[in-house]
Amino acid sequence: MTTESEEGVASRRFSYLRDPEAIYRQSFATIRAEARLERFPPDVAGLAVRVAHACGMVEVVDDLLFTPDVAARGRAALLAGAPVLVDCRMVEVGVIRSRLPAENEIVSLIGDPSLPDLACRLGTTRSAAMVELWRDRLEDSVVVIGNAPTALFRLLELLQEGAPKPAAILGFPVGFVGAAESKAALAESDQAFLTLPGRRGGSAMASAAVNALARAGSASSASARTGWTACPPRPVRSMTAPRSWSAASGTWRWCRRMAAAASPGRRSCWSWCRRSRRCAAAASASWPAATRCASESASPCRAASRSPRWWCCRRPRPSAWPAPGSAGRWSRPAW
């Protein structure tokens, strides 16, 4: 559509999808429809989809090499609080910190002031020299390489020399010199890994793989805390006073984003969130009213959450609902 401004200059309005959640859903649906994911275990398939999404090329799914346990080991490490060791700042920036299930530290040492001298002494690149600084943090960590083949080569050398083993290696160095060779060496190692052979790779793919691990890891973390099968990625912390119910605005936003799909379970969850907004208003005036609302509303969302593919609303933990007549004390309601 073309419109004319007051100055007489013609401007064109484009018709395109604007809803970010709808864009994500359509993107992932396209990848799953076009990619051949049958050879992947379900948890590794999630990583493959994210990697394809990061580069816009469905065909990379056919080329990915992996060990079947890479996703399970990586997620377990994140849940245990392991650090994420990255080879460049671009990977560090690409990782969504709020998704990390245990506020995991992202270790990027490429800017360490000692690196130039260390690289000069070792006769290697700064990226490879940086791996020397990882020695004390390698054990059960998640190592992510999205830039420098020399970093991956040196990491594999350290492991052959007896350095502590990381839980998982996400190897996506990119380039024309050493990238293909370093990833081939990774594929021949006894490490848990995910990699894309050849010259292709990059920080976007590497950080996308971490985000896929972190997203599933945060779900498992919330499940362990609440006893639910599938829980929100970032649950609201327990609240301590009536005024804290203003945090329900976060509930409302999350439900609008996460429960937009047209599945019956998510529609139930969406209905729960609409009621939860009324719960927030009720809580500021009366504890019993808020508790009644909670008891009526929680069951559909809890039932919908039984499938790990349904991400339900962001909501307080069950223990955060107020008990009738209490003055600042909290107890879990009877479902």
Question: What does this protein structure show overall?
Answer:
The chain has 335 residues and is an alpha/beta fold. The chain folds into 2 domains: 38-220, Rossmann fold; 229-320. The chain has 13 helices and 8 strands. The strands form 2 sheets. A 6-stranded mixed sheet has the order 3-8-7-6-4-5, with helices on both faces. It has a two-stranded antiparallel sheet with strand order 1-2. Helix 1 (20-34) crosses helix 2, helix 2 packs across helix 10 and helix 12 runs antiparallel to helix 13 (287-304). It is globular and about 65 Å long. The model is unreliable at 219-335 (pLDDT under 50).
What order do the helices and strands come in, and which of them pair?
Blueprint: E1 2-4, E2 10-12, H1 20-34, H2 42-55, H3 60-63, E3 65-66, H4 70-79, E4 84-86, H5 89-94, E5 106-108, H6 115-122, H7 126-132, E6 142-145, H8 149-160, E7 168-171, H9 179-187, E8 193-195, H10 203-226, H11 248-258, H12 264-285, H13 287-304
Can I get a quick summary?
It is an enzyme of class 5 (isomerase). By secondary structure, this protein is an alpha/beta fold.
